Amino acid sequence: MYGSFAECFEKLVNGEIDLFGNVSYTDERAKLFHYSDYPEGKDTYWLYASNSRQDLISNDTTKLNDIKIGVTRGSFQEGLLTQWLEDKEISAEVVGCDGFEDMMTRADAGTLDAFVAPDLSVNYGYSIITGIGFSEYYFAVAKDRPDILDELNAALYEIQNTESDYNSLLVNRYQYKMASGLTINDEERAWLEEHNNTIHMGILSNYLPFSGLQDEEPIGILVTVAESLRDDYGINVEITPYDSLDAMMKALGAGEVNLMGPVIGDFYLGEQYDCVLTDTIINTTPVMLYKGDNPADSLNSIGVEENPQFFNTETVEVLFPEAEIKEYENPDAINKAISDGSVGCTLIPSARINIVRTNPDLEDFSIAELSTKISVNMVSTMENRRVASIANKAILHTSATTGGLVMAENSYVEKEITAIDFFRQNAVYVLGFFGAIIAIMTFLLVRLQKALADAKQASRAKTSFLSNMSHDIRTPMNAIMGFTNLLEKYKNNPERVDTYLEKIKSSNEVLLSIINNVLEMTRIEQGTIALEETAESMEKFGNGILDMFNEMMSQKSIAYTREFDIKHPYLYGDQTKIREIFINLVSNAYKYTNPGGSVHVKVEELPCDKEDYILLKTTIADTGIGMSEDYLPHLFEEFSRENNTTDSKVEGTGLGMPIVKRLVEFLNGTIEVQSKKGEGTKFIVTLPHRIADKADCPSETLDISLEDLEGKRILLAEDNELNAEIANEILSEVGLIIERAEDGAICVRMLEEAADDYYDLILMDIQMPNMNGYEATEKIRSMQNTVKANIPILAMTANAFEEDKKHAMEAGMNGHLAKPINVKAVLEQLSKSLSGSKG
Hints:
The chain is built from 30 helices and 33 strands. By secondary structure, the protein is α/β, with parallel strands linked by helices. It is globular and about 100 Å long.
């Protein structure tokens, strides 16, 4: 059914229609019909005037006094406009209209000076004066159709869960020509007058489809933007081609050009270079060129040019902070390095795949598109920042064609002979060949279809995993990099330094949590985790976990209570995995419970059918924000988070609950969840435990004696300068003397050349050049000198899996410490290993 907003609204309330979209939320309306649980989208409301009213389109709101402004009568934006005028102290007349058509008719007739509407197509001949606010809009469902509401909510959940930027994609697809900012404003006009109505644009000379030369004439996507500036705005654009990004950046800094591209649209890089980014011209993804079967391994080291066209060292470091970046003179040198294994891969934008594939030297290379999305932009200097905003208008004008037609025109691949030509010339042989294999193809078809379906499913799962992890890891990484930059800027301001350090520390903890969760999930899925049971006092163990949250709960004013009802005080269990289960659950209860709420933990013993076993039932109940019934079936899915949890700004990876469930199942237990949105959540975990005696429990943890450590000499085998500096600073503070070996071979040599009792202990990294930690340890253990051969050796490495610990022990090491360094754990292990050593 069709009609104006007011007409459809009335039909919905009267039950004549069942579903209506684009409805803003108000409490009064919520009494008349149902709203969808998830928003359909978000509208920004603008004040528009005719393009002929340049007196109003000037960013000067004082000129709005005494004008007539139209708005849809009874709409959300009517109240928004009234409040905005009051806040701005503008005395304009608000004219109620019967919907958009009535408002436009009045505006065209000149009886309205301006009107309020969401994003408006430029074809109407109106431009934005200013924005007055925004609101989310929803689907509205008739009161007597809850069945539609349930199906609608399920569909919206699926959309948001699989493609969180779906709404923005729709806007970009169907509303690409918005009036927002398409008129040259006063500041931009002043800049053009000062520069003779001319923009000097720098482009790369050989980087199609973005930019290039054909018969000495510029072509490509960026040139399309320049043509729009000339044709649509009458601005002169002089284009200068450059062979490299560095040369173009120097030209921008010297004032030879005031707009240049293509560049990656990263705000951090923009700040580093003191540049202003334009809007995105086109989106693309990095594609890696590599040799071999495993693209993940190839991404560990990335080759870039010394004088690059697009992917320079700084850009790649931002996109792939953990990769080793190696610079080469030119692309041929990079390709040679990939071939001989000196470097893992190089990067190109996906938009250049067709062009790169024409290079015969790359026939043996594989191509893998990465999940990281990058935007291609242009930049101007801060001094000429108006150029960027002028260019944005042309980018918006050309956005419908740059991603399709223009890219296709500039991404051609020339071929000497087509497949059709080949078939025509060899028809007899081709038909004979296909006749011979058709029977085999028929036999294999069913199997291939199944294999294809499985492969697609695996590919989708891998892509989803990489996409989620890319986002989750980059979020704390961006915070760390940003606050580090601010730390350097405000290093003489103690208050800011303390604030930034605290935020960096918090981001570090989030990043470490993400990495640990990914590693834990990988171990579970690969089946490499093993049951490691020890006897323990359950009350002591339980309090040890729960006491961690006392201060946090108190500071958040959460009533935190616990209750134990256990008849057998000593039990066997895999303490590490149990600890991880309950830290996750209590941590969630804390995070999702608002101040003034409560968290209660109850542990009770139940009988078990298995002899010498009991069941421990642990209930963790909170009065937090809770979860909807629709979401509960998805709680234990990887990367799943409900919309109301993201609205509450609670950080999380979406891996905690899947890990908890899999660990509970690994321990032969059960987990149950009960929750109601707005009322709280209850988790019930039941785990079997074998009964133990006090004598079965391990002795108390060794206390650290700093006096025992003072003066001890440590040989630190560590190839990474930064890791070595951190270890040296931490260990020197407690009186230890640190000497460093840059790799395993140097470590062995230093020990051989030293006196028998010179070193007290070796801290051994694993992954080192020339000789790794395992090899170095085996070499030391085979020395003829028994004093040196028996020196304590502790692995201190980022290889943190259980199998890595096992490998370290098999190589002859005495202990294992995981990076990043936990100071208390390191000192405890050193104290234990050095007790009884020389003073």
